[in-house]
UniProtKB/TrEMBL annotation, chain A:
Signal peptide boundaries: none
Location within or outside the cell: Mitochondrion outer membrane
InterPro entries: Glutathione-S-Trfase_C_sf, Glutathione_S-Trfase, Metaxin_GST, Mito_Protein_Transport_Metaxin, Sam37/metaxin_N
Source organism of the structure: Casuarius casuarius (Southern cassowary)
Described function: Involved in transport of proteins into the mitochondrion.
CDD domains: GST_C_Metaxin2 (cd03211)
Protein's name in the database: Metaxin-2
Keyword terms, alphabetized: Acetylation, Membrane, Mitochondrion, Mitochondrion outer membrane, Protein transport, Transport
Family indicated by similarity: Belongs to the metaxin family.
From TrEMBL, chain B:
KW Ribosomal protein (keyword) present: no
Location in the cell: Mitochondrion outer membrane
Name of protein: MTX3 protein
The encoding gene: Mtx3
Sequence similarity: Belongs to the metaxin family.
């Protein structure tokens, strides 16, 4: 998720420095990461950050008409609904991934037994949420199917354009880039998730293009979060 | 679990599975959509579920006056005893649970703040839908598609049910193209009397309950209606509103039979 913000801020031409903190979740006003610290203001989550940046005179979606803005918001919800939930499912509901990757990583800043307690607590919280929205009964195959459907929709919407709304990047591009890049570069127990994304060549090209344009030459710090993914590798090989 | 589709010996629940089943039988309302329009369908459905659904759940199941005077009696009257004593309460608790788990995160700590936020989101969602629909008859031109069915499914109960607490309904009524959209589908596919006036007095509750009974199964009914129309010419695109022939009587089977606890 940090990457979405970095991409968004880079696209707005705003300089940003990423910093790591173990207590990042507690520093954030909403408990969610990442957040930005500007002067004496602290703002978290994509929606409020976009509003904040807009209030300061920067916006990526001013050139869109009303129908396009509606479309952009719909696609952002699709990404949140499917991709983000699938990422959470994989991280916290797939037993293999949970044991081998999530628990160690989430609990790493803390001493035993706090590391186990906190990560179990988080897992329980996420599983409750999954149950409420009807994802608890899904199998891994079904989740991967959903991811595939989402990627197909994104791929069809993108078509051969450089960005989702043709020549200029918008919040949607930042959001999609953040999620897809993370999926493609994070080490998991199997490659099934990233393989789903790799089926769509225009999405891969899209990620490469944004990486080259906005991240070349910038330091790739790991995100400011105890729950962050492992250090990002470049897509350019 | 509702809705349920019963076809010969097969019983299918959940909207996504019902749609898949129908597509396998070669009935597809999205036959003429382009790939991009298909993608848009998915995106708008996600928008409805994320932004509109919490407020709808709240209006029906959590808002105390609405739940006690409309939703609970109606559901209880259609569910056999003794489930009628237990199920509505369970559904209400599940609705509140879902709202709080998905939207009740810091810095929104109190239910009032969560409620304010979900209604703001729902109003924004209605505005977006209205802008997207514009002056078209349906979301993708002159023929209905899956997206139209989904939007109708979310909007129609909100539009038609007479609740005591109606802030979201008031907002919807200020968007004439969405109201017209609901009315068109109702008059064409459900043959209900399209009227904004409900009979006064004792009959009001009965009339509302009857309307709601028919509306709550609209999703499976709408799909089956399209099913019936398409059965006469499989693989053909859905017919336009003006040329739709009303089938002979007996086709409109009671939706009560389909309701399953």
């Amino acid at each position: 998720a940090t990457l979405c913000f970095q991409a968004f801020l880079q696209m707005c031409n705003l300089p940003v420095r990423v910093v790591c903190r173990a207590n990042a979740e507690y520093m954030s006003p909403s408990g969610k990461l990442p957040f930005i610290h500007v002067g004496n203001q602290v703002v978290s989550e994509l929606g409020p950050i976009v509003q904040f940046v807009k209030a300061k005179g920067h916006s990526l979606s001013d050139g869109l008409d009303e129908v396009q803005k509606a479309e952009m918001k719909a696609y952002m919800e699709l990404v949140n609904n499917m991709l983000l939930t699938a990422e959470l499912y994989l991280q916290w509901c797939d037993d293999v991934t949970v044991e081998e990757i999530t628990h160690p990583r989430y609990g790493s800043p803390y001493p035993w037994p706090l590391n186990r307690i906190l990560s179990y607590q988080k897992q329980w919280e996420i599983r409750r949420k999954m149950k409420a929205i009807g994802w608890a009964g899904k199998s891994l195959e079904q989740v991967l199917e959903d991811v595939d459907q989402c990627c197909q929709a994104l791929s069809q919407r993108l078509g051969t354009q450089p960005y989702f709304f043709n020549k200029q990047p918008t919040e949607l591009d930042a959001l999609v880039f953040g999620h897809l890049f993370t999926i493609l570069t994070t080490q998991l127990t199997s490659d099934e998730l990233s393989e789903k994304v790799k089926n769509y060549s225009n999405l891969i090209a899209f990620c490469r293009r944004i990486e080259q344009q906005y991240f070349e030459g910038h330091d790739k710090d790991s995100s400011a979060s105890a729950t962050s993914r492992s250090a990002k590798r470049s897509l350019l090989k | 679990e509702v809705p349920i589709l019963i076809s010969e010996d097969t019983v299918i629940s959940q909207p996504a599975k019902i749609l898949n089943f129908l597509r396998k039988q070669k009935y597809n309302a999205d036959y003429e959509l382009s790939a991009k329009q298909g993608a848009d369908t998915l995106a708008y459905i996600a928008l409805l579920e994320e932004k509109l659904l919490p407020a709808l759940l709240h209006t029906f199941w959590v808002e105390a006056e609405n739940y006690c005077s409309v939703t609970k009696p109606w559901f209880a009257s259609r569910i056999p005893f003794p489930l009628s004593l237990y199920l509505p309460g369970k559904m209400s608790r599940e609705a509140l649970n879902r709202i709080l788990l998905t939207r009740g995160v810091p810095p929104l700590y109190s239910l009032t703040e969560v409620e304010a936020q979900i209604y703001r989101d729902a109003k924004e969602c209605l505005n977006l839908l209205s802008k997207r629909l514009g002056t078209s008859q349906f979301f993708f031109g002159n023929t209905p598609s899956t997206l139209d069915a989904f939007v109708f499914g979310f909007l129609a109960p909100l539009y038609k049910v007479c609740f005591p607490r109606i802030q979201l309904q008031e907002h919807l009524k200020q968007l004439p193209n969405l109201c017209r959209f609901c009315d068109d589908i109702l008059s064409c596919y459900f043959r209900l009397a399209v009227s904004g006036h409900s009979p006064a007095g004792q009959d009001t509750v009965d009339a509302n309950l009857q309307k709601l009974t028919q509306l709550v199964n609209k999703e499976s009914n709408l799909i089956e209606k399209m099913d019936d129309n398409l059965r006469k010419s499989p693989q053909h695109p859905p017919r336009k509103l003006t040329t739709l022939k009303l089938a002979t009587g007996g086709e409109e089977s009671s939706p009560l039979n389909r309701l399953s606890p």
